[in-house]
Design goal:
Length: 160
């Protein structure tokens, strides 16, 4: 059992991410896995499996895809759907859009679950040092965060 499956914790995600994972799971189960199984069967028909590169490659791919199926099933079964509407209010929660200011200027962030984090697009995980430091804070508060580059101070200008 992998580490992510031993932590029975909520996996925060938007409805769009949840739907995307459901679609990926359907495709894996209905299209990809049967196609790989056929490749394995075809390779078996060729005889000596010890020197059959196609057989071994197909088995490796099958194991990887099965692992992905297990991961998606775990994420979906532990999903907690968030929306940006949930984030509206004075206190920062998962789903909140915030505007902060630091010595590097103003930035806008959306606090999202780990599955949707894209820091280059301003989507930061609730589990990241930055995201977790903002949770529970309000407009006007100052937050100090230990980042790889050192301690950074942010002032929360707006909670949307």
């Amino acid at each position: 059992m992998t580490k992510f499956m031993s932590d029975e914790q909520s996996q925060f995600m938007t409805k769009e991410k949840f739907s995307g994972l459901e679609k990926e799971l359907r495709e894996l189960k209905l299209e990809v896995l049967p196609r790989i199984a056929k490749r394995i069967d075809d390779a078996r028909q060729m005889g000596d499996l010890s020197e059959n590169a196609e057989y071994h490659a197909a088995r490796e791919e099958m194991a990887w895809r099965q692992s992905r199926v297990n991961e998606i099933q775990y994420l979906l079964s532990n999903a907690e759907i968030i929306s940006t509407a949930q984030g509206q209010g004075s206190t920062i929660t998962i789903g909140s859009t915030i505007v902060v200011e630091s010595k590097n200027g103003k930035k806008e962030y959306v606090i999202v679950g780990a599955q949707e984090a894209e820091p280059t697009k301003g989507k930061i995980s609730n589990e990241s040092p930055l995201g977790s430091a903002f949770l529970g804070k309000k407009k006007g508060e100052k937050v100090k965060v230990q980042l790889p580059s050192g301690v950074q101070e942010y002032k929360i200008l707006e909670v949307k």
